[in-house]
Amino acid sequence: MINVTVLVGSEQRYEGIELLGHAGYADDHQDGQELVCAAVSALALNMANSVEHFTEDRFDAEEDEESGMLRFQFTGDISPESALLMNSLVFGLLDIEESYGEPYIKIQFKEV
């Protein structure tokens, strides 16, 4: 299962995201597992790459492909462009969770 933690700041603004795990990929995988992993990875990496490429916003990021871990957190002010990218990411992840749910993906929100 992919555990997603959306980091929410005091102004109810998304300030980062933490992903951990895989959607259960194995030799005897069920329909949807590879699709969920690929979709979540594509959304999250596209957001991080877009922030880096299209904005001047500062952030810390770390990833480990084997464990399925990605941590991304802004370290300064968040531009409107980055806020839109984060909103889009969370919207997409919530849609995946609604469509596939457990045992593939679980999203929680954490105040930071």
Describe the protein in words.
The chain is α+β, with helices and mostly antiparallel strands and 112 residues long. The chain is 38% helix and 29% strand. The chain has a five-stranded mixed β-sheet, covered by helices on one side. Strand 1 and strand 2 (14-20) form a beta hairpin. The longest helix is centred in the middle third of the chain and has 22 residues, at 33-54. The radius of gyration is 14 Å and the shape is globular.
Helix content: 25-40%
The overall average pLDDT, rounded, is 91
Distance between the termini: 24 Å
Structural class comes to alpha+beta
Q: Tell me the series of helices and strands, N- to C-terminal.
A: EEHEEHE
**How are the strands ordered across the major sheet?**
3-4-2-1-5
Number of helices: 2
Strand tally is 5
Characterize the biggest β-sheet: 5 strands, mixed
Which shape, going by the Cα principal axes? globular
Strand content: 25-35%
Roughly how many Å is the radius of gyration?
14 Å
Low-pLDDT regions:
none
List keywords for this structure.
112 residues, alpha+beta, five-stranded mixed sheet, 2 helices
Topology:
Blueprint: E1 2-8, E2 14-20, H1 33-54, E3 59-64, E4 69-74, H2 80-100, E5 105-111
Parallel strand pairs: 1-5
Antiparallel strand pairs: 1-2, 2-4, 3-4
Helix pairs in contact: 1-2
The gist of it:
With 112 residues, this protein is α+β, with helices and mostly antiparallel strands. The protein contains two helices and five strands, in the order ββαββαβ.
